[in-house]
Backbone:
């Protein structure tokens, strides 16, 4: 009888410790940073302003700036570049990509979207261009040099 009661007490203790509520929420909110996390994106003669999100990915991306990269066209809606180093990730499915979204695919592929569309892929948010008007025209249909720098 003591062994049965002890076993029951152990099971209850295990359940209590497993459900103690000390777990972290895995999804970071998509909150634009209210600090000095504005980004200047230069494509040819065009300049765009983006606000970086307040997350670990955007913070790590910021340490790599300024940088000029040669972005490659993909799917008629985005430009991408494989960064040499991995960034922290917290990927989720945004459902809809908006023109001007700056995101990370996987842990090192920087993606700048210039069209709005639905997606089933997971991305980690980095930032968003505040006014993407003219972005598609500036980026064009092929490879393009893009400069990212803090504003």
Residues:
């Amino acid at each position: 009888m003591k062994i049965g009661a002890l076993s029951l007490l152990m099971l209850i203790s295990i359940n209590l410790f497993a459900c103690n509520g000390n777990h972290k929420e895995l999804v970071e909110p998509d909150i634009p940073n209210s600090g000095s996390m504005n980004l200047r994106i230069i494509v040819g003669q065009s300049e765009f302003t983006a606000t970086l999100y307040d997350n670990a990915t955007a913070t790590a991306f910021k340490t790599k700036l300024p940088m000029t990269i040669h972005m490659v066209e993909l799917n008629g809606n985005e430009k991408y570049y494989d960064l040499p180093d991995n960034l922290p990730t917290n990927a989720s499915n945004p459902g809809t990509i908006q023109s001007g979204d700056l995101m990370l695919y996987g842990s090192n592929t920087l993606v700048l979207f210039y069209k709005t569309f639905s997606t089933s892929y997971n991305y980690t948010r980095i930032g968003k261009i505040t006014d993407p008007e003219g972005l598609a025209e500036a980026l064009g249909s092929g490879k393009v040099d893009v400069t990212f720098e803090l504003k």
Observations:
- The CA atoms of residues 60 and 114 lie 23 Å apart.
- Residues 2-18 form the longest helix (17 residues).
- The chain has one domain: 32-150.
- The longest strand covers residues 67-74.
